[in-house]
Structures are given as C-alpha cells and as structure tokens.
Write a structure and sequence with these properties.
By secondary structure, the chain is α+β, with helices and mostly antiparallel strands. The chain has a domain at 192-335: ApbE-like domains (T-fold). It contains nine helices and 14 strands. The strands form four sheets. The chain has an eight-stranded antiparallel sheet with strand order 1-2-5-6-9-12-13-14, covered by helices on one side.
Length: 340
C-alpha cells in the first residue's frame, strides 16, 4: 500500500519538477530590455526582462498620463480644473488627488497640491515668476491650502476660483507605479522603472541581484553634471523617491532660492536638510513624503518617519560646520549596500 502511494506521488512530482526546470531555464534565457526617453520635462529609464518590445505600451500609458496630470498640457484634466472649465476627472487624476489629500492630512499640510500659485510666483512652476514680496505671498496664501478643495459627485470643488493645483511632487512617483503596472500586466516579474529619480523596483536585475540604486550627494548641481554618490541602496519590490534642493534652484541678488515651497509660509524652505530619500510600498507615497519631509525639516521628518514603520527614510543634512551628515531609520539599514 505504501509503495503504491509512493509511486503515485512520484508520478505527480515528476511533471512538477520538469515544469519548474522549464520555467527557470526560460527565465534565464529571456533577455533584459532597456528603453529611455523624455517625459514630464525629465528623462525616464525602464529595464525589464521580457521577450518582446513593450515601449509602445509604455509610451501609450505616458500619453494618457500626460493628458491627465500635466500642468504643461493646456488640454489635460488638471489644466482644465485650473482654468475652471467643465471636466470629469479620470482615474489617474482621482488616484493622485485622493492620495494627496490623505498625505496632506497625515503631514499636517507639509504636502499640499494647492501650492501651485506659490510655486509659479517663485519661478518653479508652469507659469513665469512674478515680482515676489510679502504682500504677494500673503495674497497667494489666501488661495493655498488643501482644505479649500474637495471632491463632490466626481468633480473638484474650489472655495476660490483662483485656486490652482500642481501634482508635480507626486505625479512622477505615481507614473512610475503606472508603468510598473503595465509591465506586470504583461507578466513581467523583473524590472526597474525610473522617472526623474522616482523608482519602482521588482524582482531582480540581470545579475540576479536586488536592484542597485545610487543616492547622489546633495551638491549644488542645476545641470545634473555631478554624479558623486552618497550611498547605494539595494531594492526590490518597493518604490523609492528622492527630493532635494540641490538640482532645482536659482540665485538672485546673492541669495539662493530652492524649489521646495512651504505651503504654510509661502516661502522656499531654509533649513539644513539637503536631501530626503523615502522607500515605501509604492512610489506615489514615497514621492509625496520625500517632498513633505523637505518642507518639515530634519527634526520633524525624523519623528514622522520613525512613527510610520511602513516607510523607511534616509536624510542627508549639513552640520554646523557645513559638512554632510546622514541619518536613516532603523529599517533602512537593510537596503544599504555593503559594497558601495
């Protein structure tokens, strides 16, 4: 009786083993493809293991995304909302809006998509900057604040028609999630999507290892020439985003103005936190929190990150002597590569 059962189990086991061997060999033989291009005013890179070209599918998704959330596209959903035109928000916009509202509440307004008029005024948005003074800022603060917009019956309701939205601090992260979804729907298990530094990593790289992602030193570098690394992270099955004031800034009358605007004060942030990298289950969350942390400053950002174990964070800041220092959450340590 036992012998018969053993033979039966063996007959079932042989196809399973052969099938597993076939899948492993097929995966080993499937090539990795790398594509890149321009989107949202930045560069994207996608590396994925698949026996075929998915660039047309990826670019189709980008086009749909641009038609929803690009403030530089006058016909996009968000542009029509800013222009107070009749428009029914699509799923891309609604997903970003809903997550933005959640993160705004969680961060006590450090993240806020109604900051558009302030961002434009300081010269970092989709409109040319104007002459900025305290009266201008006070005026713009009257139409800033996530509590002044709401969603009712599928439409955005503004308390003031002059309110404008800018989702650039979360959209690239969400776009990375969207492209990751395109790949996964095609059965791709091993890939890395990067859009302007916002990353989704799944599975392993061509070397059968976790994806290695460099975090740049926050050296003033508006032309993105400097590529000196602060550290290297090894990631898989997570989203990652970095925010800093060392790429998007300008000097006027000897003073540096960085692109991170505090929604509560209306002014560019001025503190010793130089760069924030966040690892989360999705890139949209990582992107928004990286921006929020740059607004909060080091002390508040540390406290928030440590109170939320579902995320990890790596902060680079300057000490009293101007030297770079870093702080990272306890869980971030497992992502830091031993060999830099």
């Amino acid at each position: 009786m036992n012998t018969k059962n053993s033979k039966t189990k063996l007959l079932w086991l042989i196809p399973l083993v052969l099938g597993t061997i076939y899948i492993i060999r097929r995966e080993q033989q499937t090539p990795y493809n790398s594509i890149e291009g321009l989107i949202f005013g930045t560069v994207y890179h996608v590396t994925y293991q698949y026996d075929g070209d998915l660039k047309p599918e990826i670019e189709k998704a980008f086009k749909t995304f641009d038609g929803s959330l690009s403030t530089f596209n006058d016909t996009s959903v968000i542009s029509k909302i800013n222009q107070n035109k009749e428009v029914v928000p699509d799923s891309f916009f609604l997903n970003v809006y809903n997550r933005s509202m959640e993160i705004s509440k969680e961060t006590d307004g450090a993240f806020d998509i109604t900051v558009a008029p302030l961002v434009n005024a300081w010269g970092f948005g989709f409109k040319k900057n104007q002459q900025v003074d305290s009266l201008t800022i006070d005026s713009l603060l009257q139409i800033t604040g996530y509590e002044k917009i709401s969603l009712a019956q599928g439409k955005i309701i503004k308390k003031d028609a002059r309110i404008m939205l800018d989702c650039s601090a979360i959209a690239k992260g969400y776009a990375s999630d969207v492209i990751a979804g395109v790949l996964q729907r095609h059965g791709v298990k091993n890939f890395m999507v990067e859009i302007g530094g916002e990353i989704v990593a799944r599975g392993h790289n061509p070397k059968k290892e976790a994806w290695r992602i460099g975090v740049n030193k926050p050296v003033d570098d508006s032309l993105s020439i400097n590529q000196e690394l602060q550290t290297i992270l090894q990631l898989t099955d997570v989203g990652m985003a970095t925010s800093g004031n060392y790429r998007n800034f300008y000097y006027k009358e000897g003073k540096k103005y960085a692109h991170t605007i505090n929604p509560k004060t209306g002014y560019p942030v001025q503190h010793n936190l130089l760069s924030t990298t966040v690892v989360a289950k999705d890139c949209m969350t990582a992107d928004a929190l990286a921006t929020a942390f740059m607004v909060m400053g080091l002390e508040k950002a540390e406290a928030f990150a440590n109170a939320h174990p579902e995320i990890e964070a790596y902060f680079i800041y300057s000490d009293e002597k101007g030297n770079f220092q870093n702080y990272f959450t306890k869980g971030m340590k497992k992502y830091i590569a031993e060999k830099q």
